[in-house]
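Hi both,

Apologies for the delay on this - the queue was longer than expected. I finally got the zinc ion-bound model through. Below you'll find the protein sequence and the ligand SMILES exactly as submitted, and right after that the structure tokens for the full complex including the ligand.
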Amino acid sequence: MKLTELPRQCPDCQQPFSPLVKHERTLSWPAKVLLVIGIVGSFLVGCVLCFFVFLILPAGGVIVPIRGPIAIVIWTPIIAVVTLPGIVFGRWALMLPKCVRLLCFRCGWKQVFLVDNRG
Ligand SMILES: [Zn+2]
């Protein structure tokens, strides 16, 4: 459904909705689940990489710098890898249809519609 296809009047009391009301688009529950998966995935990847950098490498005699220009060269790709699941799943979540809630202030009728991103 497109945003322009939403009902212009209340199905119960037949009163037109105010043209001043803006339709707020929110994430649907599958999109929210994808967002949580992305955040948890980024957290888990970060934990694995921190475990590798702070426990495995020092045990092998490798010193990992945490300051200076060398640290920036080392940590930038690590941070990019850590944020990758969040970016991928977040982008996927934003591509799903959004929820628009219509509410009639006169009779209390309300309904949630799924709206395409392009409409
Ligand atoms: Zn109504």
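Main takeaway for now: Residues 10, 12-13, 15, 104, 106-107, 109 surround zinc ion (CB under 6 Å).

I'll put the files on the shared drive as well.

H.
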